From TrEMBL:
<protein>
    <recommendedName>
        <fullName>Pseudouridine-5'-phosphate glycosidase</fullName>
        <ecNumber>4.2.1.70</ecNumber>
    </recommendedName>
</protein>
<keyword id="KW-0464">Manganese</keyword>
<dbReference type="InterPro" id="IPR007342">
    <property type="entry name" value="PsuG"/>
</dbReference>
<dbReference type="GO" id="GO:0016798">
    <property type="term" value="F:hydrolase activity, acting on glycosyl bonds"/>
</dbReference>
<comment type="function">
    <text>Catalyzes the reversible cleavage of pseudouridine 5'-phosphate (PsiMP) to ribose 5-phosphate and uracil. Functions biologically in the cleavage direction, as part of a pseudouridine degradation pathway.</text>
</comment>
<dbReference type="InterPro" id="IPR022830">
    <property type="entry name" value="Indigdn_synthA-like"/>
</dbReference>
<feature type="binding site">
    <location>
        <begin position="146"/>
        <end position="148"/>
    </location>
    <ligand>
        <name>substrate</name>
    </ligand>
</feature>
<keyword id="KW-0456">Lyase</keyword>
<feature type="binding site">
    <location>
        <position position="144"/>
    </location>
    <ligand>
        <name>Mn(2+)</name>
    </ligand>
</feature>
<dbReference type="Pfam" id="PF04227">
    <property type="entry name" value="Indigoidine_A"/>
</dbReference>
<feature type="active site" description="Proton donor">
    <location>
        <position position="31"/>
    </location>
</feature>
<keyword id="KW-0479">Metal-binding</keyword>
<comment type="subunit">
    <text>Homotrimer.</text>
</comment>
<keyword id="KW-0326">Glycosidase</keyword>
<keyword id="KW-0378">Hydrolase</keyword>
<comment type="similarity">
    <text>Belongs to the pseudouridine-5'-phosphate glycosidase family.</text>
</comment>
<feature type="binding site">
    <location>
        <position position="92"/>
    </location>
    <ligand>
        <name>substrate</name>
    </ligand>
</feature>
Amino acid sequence: MSAHLPPSELVVVHEDVRDALDAGVGVVALESTILAHGLPHPDNVEIAGQIEDAVRAGGSVPATIAVLDGTVHVGLGATQVERVCTDPEIAKLSVRDVGVAAALGRSGATTVASTSALAHLAGIRVFATGGLGGVHRGASETFDVSADLGVIASTPVLVVCAGVKSILDVAGTLETLETLSVPVLGYRTDAFPGFYLSDSGHSVPWRVESAEEAARVVVTRDRLGTDSAGVVLANPLPADRQVDRQLHDRLVAEGLALLEREGVHGKDVTPRLLEFFHDSSGGESLRANVELVLANARLAGEVAAEVARRSASGELARQA
Ligand code: PSU
Ligand code: MN
């Protein structure tokens, strides 16, 4: 699938990313909202580098995506990553915000939704993150359903994540993914992960045993052309690395009460909760968060490398 890139004053693809795409090397998109709004400063700067290294260890090239002074960047240099991690003016941009930020010359970090959309524009097929946005508890009253779900449903990018947090309505999120025709694959698991927990208590419809199998799903779906939905690849923390369940349940209950008390809503919900978890878990939530993001980046690196390899050999087969 070739990318139809917008003009370069709007979207700049980093040289390393462009070279990798041209050479048929795997590329993994990375979101910047987890850096700017999901992980505490100053740890986020070092973690950003570790995430990129994990993609490389998986055999692919990382492309962290953000909007800086009105320009979309697909692939950031170290100074730009540092700015995303440090600048308090960095907004949180979902897809609807990207064009506005571009027009007004603003800067912002991209969510799962906007990162997927921009990755697709650049011809990137695989994306790694921590947790997906989803259906919030009480959504039947508040209508708070993350734009992540709708965008994944219409954007052919595979997203590696550790499920969704149990602050969300996990069952409702899975039902919505089914309604939107987004395939959900468990990586070596039958259970949909619960971010800090290895098992959310809900099952996944499909299970794959390897990066190679996940890549085969991407390439086969492309060749079949049934639809242009993305794929969710759910990668759980190993059971012995998950957050203690009692601590987890306490944090979720207290976090939800805090939102209520502070009247937090809309796009501030997730960042506020993450901040609360990091402040109140004695480092446990951060430890687990970092481990799962690194594991997802590594796996995404392996899947993207395999997708690239299969796509290249498909090209050769067609030319022969
Ligand atoms: N889940 C996490 N950490 C995060 C996010 C989600 O565990 O940082 C971020 C992602 O960028 C995701 C966004 O796309 O929050 C979803 O926000 P909302 O619910 O406002 O759509
Ligand atoms: Mn929301």
